[in-house]
Amino acid sequence: MNKLTIKDVDLKNKKVIMRVDFNVPIKNGMITDDTRIKAALPTIKYAVDEGAKVILLSHLGRPDGEKDPQYSLKPVAERLKELINVPVYFVDETRGEKVERAVSQLKNGEILVIENTRFEKGETKNDPDLAKYWAGLADIHVNDAFGTAHRAHASNVGIAKYIPSVAGFLMEKEIKFLSAANENPQKPYVVVLGGAKVSDKIDVINNLLNKADRILIGGAMMFTFLKALGKKVGSSKVEEDKLDVAKTILENAKAKKVEIVLPIDTVAAQKIEAGAEKKIFKINEGIPEGWMGLDIGPETIRLFSEKLSDAKTVFWNGPMGVFEIDDFAEGTKKIAEAIVNVTKKGCISIVGGGDSAAAAEKFSLAEEFSHVSTGGGASLEFLEGKELPGIASISVKKN
Ligand code: AMP
Predict the structure, then answer these.
(1) Which residues of the chain have pLDDT under 50?
(2) Assigned CATH for 185-383
(3) Has 324 been labeled as part of a binding site?
(4) Which residues bind substrate (predicted)?
(5) How far is the CA of 316 from the centre of ligand 1 (A)?
């Protein structure tokens, strides 16, 4: 990696302003899942142990530039206090005298959490005055929030104009794994795509046609491809305005000798509901009107598992079916297991955030992959081959 990391800089006696991802789910003031806080601990602890004064910045939810108490980071600061053995202070402001006083009182190895960055209108607009203000509080910026790397905001990108920005451990791991898949993947490189819409994945598929050996397509997006091939898909979800795009993708794949593998059967129902009557239809025989394909079928599970069995690199984004409902979760679970199996044989497997990461969690498999990305949107944009502003802004290593 050609980016500076937190290990490349001297942190002793330094004020470090660190952008972390504390965007945790909160219900009635209680944190319902603290995974993201725990995930940020290694970088925070490292800075503390090195003798830095640590100022933490994060967004939480979408308060849209308003001070909205339901999105306060106070409960997060309290949870952090329980998880780390050093003083953690919290200021209920994002700038001003209170913040400055708290920063000036910080001792080496202590932590200050300031209020939700998105209480500031300028945060998502990457306002230079706001960025300059936050930069003025510290000597070094640490960027450990990969989930926002596809956005140029003041707290991740703007600050880096005024003080050096280095990657934290989470960010470093994301860049390493995603670059490995994008730059020189071990072959065969097999990509598994699913989820709701083809339209979200067009750019990533087009880029992957230059890199992958095989692309397996499940989820609702499979029906747009199957319909483009003239199959009867019944009442399954189809993006009618993307049929031509799907056709072009299939033609380009042929020209580039990338194998696109589409499902051969599907588990269908008449309603998206737990306990609804289910039937398996073979794609070649067609799905009758009134029935919707909601998962890949057992023959497809076998086919996809076989197509994964010799992979040396796997990228997985998007569930194979409506995995939130157990009746339609089998395909996603079995494909996740097939990826885990090949990982055990030395394949590098990357799960691309969002719903796929949630599915991996649901099946208690998250620990079994080489890497589960923390950023759904960011990991997709990375694999689209785009330069992410929140990575571009991190200082480059000089030789
Ligand atoms: P995405 O955000 O694009 O990854 O889409 C994920 C969503 O797609 C999940 O909420 C799934 O329930 C949904 N999904 C997956 N397969 C199907 C399907 N066959 N029909 C309808 N929705 C689906």
Answers:
(1) none
(2) 3.40.50.1260
(3) yes
(4) 21-23, 36, 59-62, 118, 151
(5) 14
